[in-house]
Amino acid sequence: MQRLRVKFSRGEEVKYITHLDLMRLWERILRRAGMPLAYSEGFTPHPRISLAAPLPLGVTSEAELLDIFLKKRVSPYFLFQAINRQLPRGIEVSEVREILWSAPSLQSQVRYAEYRVEMKTNKSPEEVQEAITTLLQAGELPWHHRRDTGVRHYDLRSLVQDLWLIDWKDFNFILGMRLRCDPGGAGRPEQVTQALGFPDYPESIHRTKLLLAGGK
């Protein structure tokens, strides 16, 4: 029995694939690569594969994490080579490493996600920096989000660990964000930009890092 962790990127070609479709895609990739997948128990066994944190539609990433459970051991390098021959355009694997079988679930270990967010605004760099400072200094930021099940009210400030201005040129700004991403709640970059005073949806959102418990 073995547990391997795959780090991969999602590009423009697959940024509108749903979480469920992505899981099905990975199952097909692993089957075609001939991996000896371990299965869950019960009436409807399914392959034991799990993603760290679902990526919202329309968001690209270079930091996605996937745990794969195998019933027979293979080397991380062998799996890396085997699945690379099966990957569709838009998905690239950068790392495969072995994880303790008994380690906590991947989803339970995620603490923060970092993003690179591009937006357009006629504000000056000074005004953008002032908006960032004001938000970070706020004690709380009451927010609401409408879902199919109704309106959810929460404190958006508690989901933001850090914000910073990366670059700007003309009216294009690039912001860095470190947002909470754990079982208790997850920050959404487009809500943070709205809270900063930018009503338009960002030009692009790219996840650059997932931080796990223990700072990994």
Feature tags:
9-stranded mixed sheet; Alpha-Beta Plaits; two-stranded antiparallel sheet; 5 helices; 216 residues
Description:
It is a single chain. By secondary structure, the protein is α+β, with helices and mostly antiparallel strands. It has two domains: 2-103, Alpha-Beta Plaits (2-Layer Sandwich), CATH 3.30.70; 109-212, Alpha-Beta Plaits. The protein has helices at residues 19-32, 76-84, 106-109, 125-137, 189-195, and strands at 2-10, 49-51, 60-70, 91-99, 110-120, 142-147, 150-155, 160-169, 172-182, 185-186, 204-212. The model has no long low-confidence stretch (mean pLDDT 92).
H/E series: EHEEHEHEHEEEEEHE
What is the approximate shape? elongated
Please indicate the count of domains: 2
Tell me the distance between the termini: 24 Å
The Rg value, from CA coordinates, equals 19 Å
What's the CATH topology name of the largest domain? Alpha-Beta Plaits
CATH architecture of the largest domain: 2-Layer Sandwich
State the secondary-structure class: alpha+beta
Runs with pLDDT <50, length 5+?
Answer: none
